């Protein structure tokens, strides 16, 4: 196991309803013969001293060997998962990643971790947009996250303007091996098929 960088916990966000996947939980879709969530946990455990899965179906995730936490604000999207994970994080920063990114790569993660400084968040830019669910957040932002959730401002785009964000440019990231794969997500059966994935259960 590689040496863990200090002061960061790894978080897998697995609370979505997978509506565009026909209701099937995309976390369990297999790519390369391994469920996406299993590979994601394995990658994070090689980097971080604490790995958490934020999910409202913990009975489905016990076998993956990570800590489990449910949302305090149910049905309020990824921000609620980040909130839940921040509440139990033992480190002052969290690296969060969605459960539908089968190509997440340690080199990209470490590149983002190296940017941790005074900013509240380190958020990559890719393909003309931002990737707030493949990013680093300071746990000190928990009170602000909670205020947003309580006010019903649940989109990540509601939160980001209130943070001091270090946006990592696409140009910088293109110099990192495997960046394109790391930011690829699968929200539909077609996107899953494009990366050679499938649901292995009947």
Strands, helices and their partners?
Elements: E1 8-13, E2 30-31, E3 34-35, H1 36-45, E4 51-54, E5 67-69, H2 77-88, E6 93-98, H3 106-113, E7 121-126, E8 129-130, E9 134-138, H4 142-150, H5 156-159, E10 165-168, H6 170-173, H7 179-182, H8 189-194, E11 197-198
Parallel strand pairs: 1-4, 1-6, 4-5, 7-10
Antiparallel strand pairs: 2-3, 2-11, 6-9, 7-8, 7-9
CATH-defined fold name: Spore Coat Polysaccharide Biosynthesis Protein SpsA, Chain A
- The rounded Rg comes to 16 Å
What is the arithmetic mean of pLDDT? Answer: 87
- SSE order, one letter for each helix or strand: EEEHEEHEHEEEHHEHHHE
Overall 3D shape? globular
Q: State the share of residues found in helices, binned by percent.
A: 25-40%
CATH class: Alpha Beta
Please give the largest β-sheet: 8 strands, mixed
Count up the domains.
Answer: 1
Poorly predicted parts: none
Distance between the termini: 35 Å
**Number of DSSP strands?**
11
**How would you name the CATH homologous superfamily?**
Spore Coat Polysaccharide Biosynthesis Protein SpsA, Chain A
Instruction: Compute the number of helices.
Output: 8
- In CATH, the architecture is Alpha-Beta Complex
Structural class: alpha/beta
Strand content: 15-25%
Would you write up a description of this structure?
- The chain is globular.
- The longest helix has 12 residues, at 77-88.
- The mean pLDDT is 87.
- With 202 residues, the chain is α/β, with parallel strands linked by helices.
- The strands form two sheets. Strands 1, 4, 5, 6, 7, 8, 9 and 10 form an eight-stranded mixed beta sheet that branches. Strands 3-2-11 form a three-stranded antiparallel beta sheet.
- The protein is built from eight helices and eleven strands.
């Amino acid at each position: 196991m590689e040496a863990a960088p200090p002061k960061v916990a790894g978080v897998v966000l697995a609370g979505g309803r997978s509506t565009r996947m026909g209701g099937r939980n995309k976390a369990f879709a297999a790519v390369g013969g391994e469920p996406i969530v299993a590979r994601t946990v394995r990658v994070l455990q090689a980097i971080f001293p604490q790995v958490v899965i934020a999910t409202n179906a913990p009975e489905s995730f016990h076998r993956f060997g990570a800590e489990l936490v449910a949302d305090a604000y149910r049905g309020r999207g990824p921000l609620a998962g980040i909130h839940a994970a921040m509440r139990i994080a033992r480190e002052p920063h969290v690296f969060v990643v969605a459960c539908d990114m089968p190509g997440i790569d340690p080199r990209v993660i470490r590149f983002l971790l190296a940017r941790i400084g005074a900013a509240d968040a380190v958020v990559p830019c890719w393909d003309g947009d931002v990737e707030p669910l493949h990013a680093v957040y300071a746990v000190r932002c928990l009170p602000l996250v909670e205020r947003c959730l309580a006010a019903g401002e649940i989109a990540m785009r509601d939160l980001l303007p209130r943070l001091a964000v270090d946006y990592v440019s696409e140009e910088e990231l293109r110099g990192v091996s495997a960046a394109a794969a790391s930011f690829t997500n699968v929200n539909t059966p077609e996107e899953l098929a494009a990366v050679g994935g499938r649901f292995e259960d009947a």
